[in-house]
Amino acid sequence: MRRLNWLLGLLLTLTCMSAIAAPIREWSDPYREWIMQIPKSPGDVLAALNQIPPAQLQDPNVIAQHHSALSMVYFALSYPQKSLDNAQTALKYVDREEQPWLFHMTKLNESQAFDIVGTPNSGLLGANAAVIWGELNDDLDMVVNGLFVRGVLRNSLVDYQGALKDLQRAYELAPSAKNLSRGDIAGMLALVYEYRREDALAIPFFEEAAEFHRENENDLELSIALYGLGKAHNNLGNTELGRSLLTQSKNLAQVAGDLQGVAYALKELAGISLTTNDLQSAEEQLQQALDIFLQSDNKFMLVEAYKNMLLVALAKNELTEAERYLNLADSVIDKQNMPIQSIELDETRALFWAKKGENQKAFELLYETVSEKQQLLSQQSTRQLHSLRSQYEIDMKERENQLLEQQNQLQKSDLNAVETKNLQLLLLFGATLIICGLLIIMVYRALKNRARFEKLANTDSLTGLSNRRSAMEKLHNQMELAQRHNLHLAIAIADIDLFKKINDTYGHAVGDKVLKRFGQLCTNTFRQTDVVGRIGGEEFLIALPHTSLHDAENTLKSLSLKVKTLSEQFSQEGLKLSISIGLTQFQQGLSAEEVLLHCDTALYQAKRGGRDKVVIYDKEDPAMLQMEL
Length: 629
What we know:
By secondary structure, the chain is mainly alpha-helical.
């Protein structure tokens, strides 16, 4: 702690100096010392950092390093949002061109914070850029750090093969790097195998990580490695060894001041106690864990803890208490962002109902969870495919940009050499440059005018969406792609309800404003690859490529809900907005006219059924068949 105070004094001295900062390739003192101490005593580092009000710091690069260090400490202590907030604050003070190393290291801090916040896909761009910059600038430490963070993100995205590839490469390069060792990377390699439920393969890497952190007296990292090792042994049936390792992990986390680590270990120990029917110990351990998770508002772990407390209550045949914990879990869980936990909670809910004697109700719920699991697996596979495709495109784009930058630098050097030859060549080059510049301006203006005219020809001036001709052309293109590659394509026609009445009651100015706001809403709602166009007065065509009928229905229902809120943007009393939508799925061999007829038929059924609905075309529906005839 005395050393930290000395470093604090050094920092305050440095920040009083005003000078133009040269590009840095490592953390400046005292931040380098603090960052090295995070694995040993994160609580002390956090206390030292918090003694320095950021307002006292003057150099933007020092401010950036200060917030980056805070981000790393909060990441180590499992405070997701604080870690992300500080990383993003740091980025505000870093100039990418002047301080590329500091920029990419801070982006890596942001990327790993995105992971524990629950949005790992948001961190891929920063990790990719760091790896490429490190390779192009021969910065091995940046490459290893970038590969490590990208491997962590891919593991969270269920891209286990990609995660293993990145982490194994980082593991091979680690002996030549400064910041990360093989012991650091071994723990994450073990975690990949744990996620794949290959505990036997995970154990050697957990042991390597534990040995490394034990030798270096990194109590925080050692507690994490022992936690994983204890879980793996318990999963393989080595219950007592697992209990012992988890207890060691809990004790080390307490010493390091890692309350979240204590709670995680207690939760796993409670699971062992529950398995061995030691219900009193399980309840006590879970209650301690709950108290910690409540302080940090860790919703994922709160759901797990409430669910386990429910299981303890069921084992004790305390149904009233079990129902209380079930209600608490329901109050915390976010089904949209916690789908796996939601399914597991429903499975536990079924046990509760069965215990109450409501067997039919329990069976029906379990049957639903099977379908939900299958759907979730399908969605994960789709997300993984999109992630891989996006990753490839990002990698290629970044490489192209870096190579172009290098080529530009070489060209500048060549031009400087030519300029020194003689004045005549310089004047000739200048004249040529002027002519080329004029040509570029002429070409630029021509291209700009062409783009403007094309936009006018293809865009509805009121809504900003595609006009009828452009929308139909895009629809035909998407149908050809769907036909050729057997892809999903959902097509819909949306109609603003009672639009004529709006014009008659509030005037055409209000009607135009409604159309404009609806166009803006569509632009913000749909993807760039989707087709959205105005094909009539208040009628809009929507085509969603690579989208199943079920996903399209959910997207359009969400749009319908957003439309209702548009009324709040108008001062006209009594104005209520809604849309009716007719939806169909493209089938092989259908023409555009047939598809649009199906949409019109479903739209008419939506209007006939009271409006404000999304109706899916069903050729088996007698009412729709009669309308087509």
